[in-house]
Amino acid sequence: MVTELEELHKRVDKIEKQKNQEVLTLVEILSNATFFGEIKKANCEYAKNGQCSFFILKSEAKNKMPIATECRIKQCKEPSLHCHIELSNISCTLCQRTNNGPEIHSSEHTSKKSKDIIKTQENLSHRLSKKNS
To answer: Which domain holds residue 40?
Structure first.
C-alpha cells in the first residue's frame, strides 16, 4: 500500500510539473505576441483609433463577432454602414498584412477586398451560428 501511495505522489508531482511548464510556455508565447504585436500595431498604416481599417465588415458583424465594432475611423472612405475589427496586440501579431501593400481605400481595390472580407465574415458568422444552435 505504501508503494502505491508513493507511486501516486510521483504521478501527481509529474502532472503538476507538466502543468506548470505548460503555463510558463503559454505566458511566454503571449508576452512575445504582445511585444511584437505592439511593434506591428505602432507601425501599421491600417491601425486607426483602435480599429483595423483593413478589415471592413458588414454592420451585422457587431452582433455576431465580439471583436467587431462600428466604425469610428474619421478618415474611413467606406460609404455604407459597416464595422471594423477591434485591435489588440494579439490580433496585430496574427495579422499577415504587410505595410507595403496598396491602400485599402483605393477605388476598385476597396470594393473587391471589401467583398472578399465580407464574404469571409459571413462564412464565419454562419459557422458560429450553427455551433451555437
So the answer is: 2-97+104-132
